[in-house]
Design brief:
Order of helices and strands: EEEHHEEEEHHEEHHHE
Distance between the termini: 5 Å
Strand order of the largest sheet: 1-10-9-6-7
Radius of gyration: 17 Å
Structural class: alpha+beta
Helix content: 25-40%
């Protein structure tokens, strides 16, 4: 049975005030789910954390009910179920990223929808690292196409835009996916963007160094490094960002010779 370690820390809201984390982690016997609720497009809508909590529970139920089902199909069913239960409408609903890792005796599968990456280590890619990342929202931001809330609504879950769990079940089939042989995978990290910025934006370390830091000094050391960088730039002059501190969630799955 793989070893699963989790580190989480709440961030702050856009107003700088403390509030509960909107990240959600679910551990199952043969899978891990990591969801990051996004800030709602309208203040009168439920929070992204509310939605991520509902979707993570629904998705866990789907995985338990159909443990060999296609990951995108199960996610689509979970999105549809939550939308129907709470009368959520496309373009006017809270949303969430989704990262899934599931394993059997033979394979390890991953699915990433929006910006919560999965990183595999072992005999899996160049330099023993394989990053499964959905960069579409980052590319749109870099091209200046997400400047306003109207831009976000227009680009969300549409061709040429970005895809995220919301109220459009077909978004699940636009996720980035990867499958590895179980024997080739030593460890996997799942991270919300409150941690991934340490690699992608702040360049504090690469993913291999993040793994070594987590293994050598503990999971919270990775979160601490990101927070310390943000404290050194409290006004976002060096690293422009909507919030001083985003929610942080990091999951480490360590595999060994023992199979499930």
């Amino acid at each position: 049975m793989p070893k699963i370690e989790v580190a989480e820390r709440a961030g702050v809201g856009v107003d700088g005030a403390a509030r509960p984390t909107e990240d959600h982690v679910v551990r199952l016997d043969n899978a891990v789910l990591l969801l990051d609720g996004a800030t709602s497009p309208h203040p009168d809508l439920p929070s992204g954390g509310w939605y991520a909590g509902l979707l993570s529970a629904q998705l866990a139920d789907e995985l338990l009910t159909n443990p060999e089902g296609d990951l995108a199909d199960l996610l689509a069913k979970a999105i549809a179920g939550v939308a129907a239960q709470h009368d959520l409408r496309p373009g006017n609903a809270p949303s969430s990223t989704v990262a899934i890792v599931r394993w059997t005796e033979e394979i390890v599968e991953s699915l990433v929808l929006a910006d919560s990456p999965v990183v595999a280590f072992g005999r899996v890619g160049p330099n023993g690292t394989d990053v499964v990342a959905d960069n579409r929202i980052i590319e749109l931001r870099d091209r200046g196409r997400l400047r306003t809330r109207a831009d976000v609504r227009y680009q969300r879950n549409s061709p040429g835009g970005f895809w995220v769990a919301e109220a459009v079940p077909t978004a699940a089939h636009r996720a980035v996916r990867r499958t590895w042989r179980r024997a080739d995978v030593d460890a996997i990290l799942l991270a919300t963007d409150g941690v991934a910025v340490g690699v992608d934006d702040y360049h504090l370390f690469d993913w291999r160094e993040a793994l070594e830091l987590a293994q050598g000094k503990g999971m919270t050391a990775v979160l601490d490094a990101v927070r310390e960088a943000e404290e050194s730039d409290p006004d976002g002059a060096r690293w422009p960002r909507a919030k001083r501190h985003d929610d942080q969630a990091l999951v480490l799955v360590t595999f060994d010779s023992t199979v499930v």
